[in-house]
Amino acid sequence: VQLQASGGGLVQGGGSLRLSCAASGSFYAINDMNWYRQVPGKQRDLVATSTRGGSTNYADSVKGRFTISRDDAKKMVSLQMNNLKPGDTGVYYCNAAVTSRSGSSYLTRNYWGQGTQVTVSS
Questions:
Q1: Fewer CB in a 10 Å sphere around the end CB: N or C, the chain?
Q2: How far is 45 from 95, CA to CA, in rounded Å?
Q3: pLDDT tens across 76-92, in order?
């Protein structure tokens, strides 16, 4: 299973960007799909989650500005980021809990995309 992220870039404060992440490979199901953000010297922080059941959750700092969405048919998750602030700057990683099936056995593993840089200027 591979996750390929795209859509980062440089934007002025107040602007918008849309990140996308596509899953490829053979698997049974994709469960939670998430976006994380990491800045140098700090841990990777959860920004937004989309569950298989259709629920979404956001970090307080992005509520009302970011929207996570998923297309299970296309095996994709996106993050629409509006009204961007300099504090949103970082490397954004997509993450997914993916279940594979082998006969009657199921195994869920965590996968990461390669990260995409988002830079918001003031």
A1: C
A2: 12
A3: 999 999 999 999 999 99
Cα dihedral 23, 25, 91, 86 in deg (nearest 10): -10
Judged on CB neighbours under 10 Å (0-12, 13-18, 19+), 90 is buried
Count of C-beta atoms within a 10 Å radius of residue 121: 11
Give me Rg for the CA atoms of the chain: 15
Give the type of residue at 5. A
- Between the alpha carbon of residue 108 and those of residues 15, 32, 62, 70, 101, the distances in Å are 37, 11, 28, 19, 9
